[in-house]
Amino acid sequence: MKFDPSHFLLLASDGNGAPSKPPLGDKRLGLVRADGRAVVDDTGSFYPLGLTFFWSMQGEKYEADHYHANLDWSAKKGFDFHRILAEVDWEGNREIDPQSPEWHDWRAILERVIDLAYDGYGIRTQVTLRGKGTAVDHIWLAREVGDIAAARQHKVISTEMENEYLVGGDPLDELVEMAREVKSRTPHLLGLSTPGDEATAEELDQALHEVGGQLYIRHLDRGTGDYKWRQVRQSYDFHNDPPFVGWSNEPAGPASSVATNDNPLQLAMTRAVGIMCGAPGYVLHTGTGVYGDGKSHPTAGPRPPNFWEIENIDDIVDAVRGIDKLIPAGVPNWTVANTQWKPPNPVAPFQPHNHWEGDHGDGVNKAYSALAPDGRVIQMPCGVRGHVRMTASYPLRDVVVYNPLTHQALPNLPTSFGQGESMDLPGGGQDAMVAYIIHGRKG
User: What contacts 108, CB < 8 A, 6 or more positions away?
Assistant: First the structure.
């Protein structure tokens, strides 16, 4: 594995793999908990941004300097949590087998990963208990993780029983048994796994109700239709999942399997639409976050061993993290609408006149919106080709149209509209690589 320590000043180790003087920064405080479909901690309401970091335990055990440097990078980039695996059967010395002789120190490693991330870097941990494959006793695993999390309530953001139930998962009754064990030990946000078809979605929905879990976890479809704007609009699916808190664990990202996406605007809007539709949690999923070994993937291409080596990663993170500036607190609890319903729309502030799918037509690909109880509105025209005419569904004031990458307001636009009055917004070329976030208020 190629690793260049010159990127970072690595700290001296205490002999157990943890830095003796970790860099201290601002930390969010307290237990992360549900507030309707939003989340809060003792610092206040926020939209947790995570990073796939499946190899955290292998990194801490076998290559601590490499792991710590990447953890340091993620802290400096402003991530709130990293998503780790506590068990998985991967070949090539990449397994995490909690009950094997090789992993006799499994519990100490997991505790150290969680403590180091928060104490040293201000980053919480999402623990996915099972990556699948080993012969670990699932009840034993749930009890161990539950006890570890219970002792670190401010350091763990959530627990998930298994990665990708939709792909050869273990029996649902085992996940339910695990969830009951974890739930009896700790008050953390808890999810089961990800559904596949509608049948498994209903099964997981019912099971999550039964165990008192709060997180409905989706791995959004990575289909590449409509110049990958289809990936963005998959986040609308979260609006169907109340009363749970939505969690977007593995959307398409740089060097992700099946289909990739390294476009800062589309990744930012995927997160933004998800937040508006009830999913405050979003994980930036990269190929580097899966193994961290620098090996290329047969379909996803190069997967550098370090996050900072991912092409265009600075622009990607700035865009995905920066979207917080344009989304008010509490938006996941607002009423959501697909604005391509026929007008008049009681939620959408503006009705787009023209839409496109495929290779023909101008307008928006989608333009979802949300309405707050106090009359505030937010709307997200995604994928504007050519131009789009937006017509007010009802009287509006305090209207501002933002560029989601620069966070700047478009100049020379009216700030108030009567019902039926319109504005034109410019778009992009064939790939429609333009989007907006519109704020306003009814009345």
Answer: none
DSSP string over 31-59: --EEETTEEEETTEE---EEEE-TTHHHH
Contact status, residue 103 vs residue 146, Cβ threshold 8 Å: no
**Residue pLDDT, tens place only, 154-192:** 999 999 999 988 777 788 999 999 999 999 999 999 999
In the predicted model, is pLDDT for residue 440 greater than 90? yes
Dihedral of the alpha carbons of 81, 86, 89, 91, in degrees to the nearest 10: 50
C-alpha 282/C-alpha 268 separation (Å) is 10
CA proximity to 149, closest of 182, 103, 100:
182
Write the single-letter amino acid at 420. G
Distance, in Å, from the CA atom of 49 to the CA atom of 271, rounded to the nearest integer, reads 9
Pick 168 or 4 by higher pLDDT: 168
**Overall pTM surpassing 0.85 (yes/no):** yes
Decide: 31 and 156 in contact? Cβ < 8 Å: no
Is 243 exposed, middle or buried, given 0-12, 13-18 or 19+ CB atoms closer than 10 A? exposed
Query: For the chain, what percent of residues have pLDDT higher than 70?
Result: 93
The length of the chain, given as a count of residues: 443
Cα separation of 39 and 186, whole Å?
Answer: 17
Block residue for tokens 């070949």: 91
